[in-house]
């Protein structure tokens, strides 16, 4: 009897799964799915190229090297994709806050029990050499929670209380991640500002952030006296061009004092707040040639590797910089070097083009959503992938500090691949049911 009931339940579950598959398959954005698998496949091949050694050739499928291990993570990601697409898409909105709360608890648990790895307490040891980085999972959890909050509160009409709640949702995970000494992962959460701007956040916040970053960088590059003189000249020029600013002299004087304070606080922040390895990353960004065998090694070797590829590259598995391990972490943070060296300018440009097409497609998907939750979540996904892509490629060519941010779908790492897979396919699941929501709303209107 029990066996018959079990078989009956299995048949019902199978029929239900098939019905769901028939509903979602025609509406799934297959172009985005194709781009996902293309990037993951190219990443897997280049992970093998990054660890390949002609003196000790190992099969690409071997679990003794990163490409074999990554293949296991790719397999588990396929299971994740099936689960994400089969479950009811409404669960992502209904359980947004519980998922966020669980990940926050997981971050705190990791902070309490994780063993230090390279100075960071951000990895949970699952046994058998398998490790999980909850900081990666915090990205999609925060995207869900922020989207849920914004779907119930109009950002253009929010009170300060609502702004503070949204800020808390966004800043709590990176605050814990910074305590884990994983500053690079924490910086990614700044990308959420792009999504919030789309939903009506004041552009003034973006302007303040951009100006602050500019002043910080210029303070490191230009003597303080010259910088302050330049700022004063710009403010005087602004008053001369628009006499109405004369009425706001007090405000401009306060602004000048604030900027001067920022200029003189940069040294304190860099020398007394940042840790030595973080200080070296800033020095490497400003002038890697100052210590090419020390803090400038990674960036210098990275640029040599990319530059040596020329226009067409040296060919697959033919990268000399790669073979002799001149670039550290080449299968993870510096995977773009492998592309540049072995596939040259052509390969690098094609990879950048693939990411641009993916980002444009995600924005397109976000804009066609009928709910604020779906649209906001779509922009969160685009913002996170864009930030990772921009910083990762930027740090390999010396335009961004080396902060340990992987290239989405490409770099070696299970936590990273899981995080981006979940991010993307939750959006695709929401989008696949979009037409059903439209049909349902039309019937209700009738």
What does it look like?
The protein is an all-alpha fold and 446 residues long. The protein has one domain. Helices cover 71% and strands 2% of the residues. The chain has 19 helices and 2 strands. It has a two-stranded antiparallel ribbon with strand order 1-2. β1 and β2 form a beta hairpin.
Write the layout of secondary structure elements.
Blueprint lengths: L1 H23 L5 H22 L14 H21 L4 H4 L1 H18 L10 E4 L2 E3 L1 H18 L8 H20 L3 H5 L4 H7 L4 H19 L2 H18 L7 H25 L2 H11 L10 H12 L11 H4 L11 H33 L4 H25 L17 H19 L1 H12 L1
Antiparallel strand pairs: 1-2
Uncertain segments are: 1-7, 9-17, 441-446
- The topology string of helices and strands comes to HHHHHEEHHHHHHHHHHHHHH
Structurally, the number of domains stands at 1
The total strand number stands at 2
Q: Quick check: average pLDDT?
A: 81
How much helical structure, as a percent, in the residues?
Answer: over 70%
Quote the beta fraction.
under 5%
**Order of strands across the biggest sheet?**
1-2
Could you say which overall geometry the principal axes of the C-alpha atoms support?
Answer: globular
Largest sheet: 2 strands, antiparallel
Query: What's the alpha carbon Rg, rounded to whole Å?
Result: 25 Å
Find the structural class using helix and strand composition.
mainly alpha
Q: State the separation between the terminal residues, measured CA to CA.
A: 48 Å
Continuous helix count: 19
């Amino acid at each position: 009897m029990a066996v018959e009931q079990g078989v009956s339940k299995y048949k019902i579950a199978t029929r239900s799964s098939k019905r769901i598959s028939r509903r979602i398959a025609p509406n799934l954005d297959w172009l985005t799915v194709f781009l996902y698998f293309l990037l993951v496949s190219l990443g897997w091949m280049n992970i093998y190229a990054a660890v390949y050694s002609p003196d000790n050739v190992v099969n690409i499928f071997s679990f003794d090297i990163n490409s074999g291990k990554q293949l296991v993570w790719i397999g588990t990601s396929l299971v994740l994709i099936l689960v994400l697409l089969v479950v009811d898409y409404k669960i992502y909105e209904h359980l947004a806050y519980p998922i966020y709360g669980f990940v926050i608890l997981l971050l705190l648990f990791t902070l309490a029990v994780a063993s230090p790895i390279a100075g960071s307490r951000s990895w949970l040891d699952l046994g058998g050499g398998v490790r999980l980085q909850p900081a990666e999972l915090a990205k999609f959890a925060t995207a869900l929670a922020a989207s849920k909050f914004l779907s119930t509160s109009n950002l253009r009409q929010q009170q300060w209380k609502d702004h503070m709640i949204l800020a808390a949702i966004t800043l709590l995970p990176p605050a814990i991640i910074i305590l884990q000494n994983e500053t690079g992962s924490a910086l990614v959460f700044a990308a959420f500002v792009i999504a919030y701007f789309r939903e009506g956040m004041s552009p003034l916040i973006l302007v303040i952030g951009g100006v602050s970053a500019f002043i910080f960088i210029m303070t490191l590059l230009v003597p303080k006296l010259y910088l302050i003189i330049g700022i004063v000249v710009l403010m005087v020029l602004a008053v001369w061009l628009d006499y109405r600013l004369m009425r706001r002299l007090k405000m401009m004087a306060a602004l000048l004092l604030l900027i001067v304070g920022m200029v003189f606080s940069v040294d304190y922040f860099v020398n007394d707040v940042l840790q030595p390895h973080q200080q070296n990353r800033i020095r490497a960004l400003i002038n890697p040639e100052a210590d090419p065998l020390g803090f400038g090694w990674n960036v210098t070797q990275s640029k040599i590797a990319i530059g040596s590829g020329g226009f067409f590259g040296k060919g697959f598995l033919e990268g000399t910089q790669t073979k002799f391990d001149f670039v550290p972490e080449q299968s993870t943070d510096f995977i773009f070097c492998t592309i540049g060296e072995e596939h040259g300018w052509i390969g690098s440009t094609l990879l950048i083009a693939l990411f641009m097409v993916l980002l444009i497609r995600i924005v397109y998907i976000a804009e066609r959503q009928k709910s604020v939750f779906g649209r906001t979540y779509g922009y969160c996904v685009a913002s996170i992938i864009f930030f990772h892509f921009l910083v990762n490629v930027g740090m390999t060519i010396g335009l961004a500090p080396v902060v340990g941010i992987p290239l989405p779908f490409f770099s070696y790492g299970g936590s990273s691949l899981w995080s981006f897979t979940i991010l993307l396919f939750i959006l695709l699941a929401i989008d696949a049911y979009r037409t059903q929501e439209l049909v349902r709303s039309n019937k209700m209107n009738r």
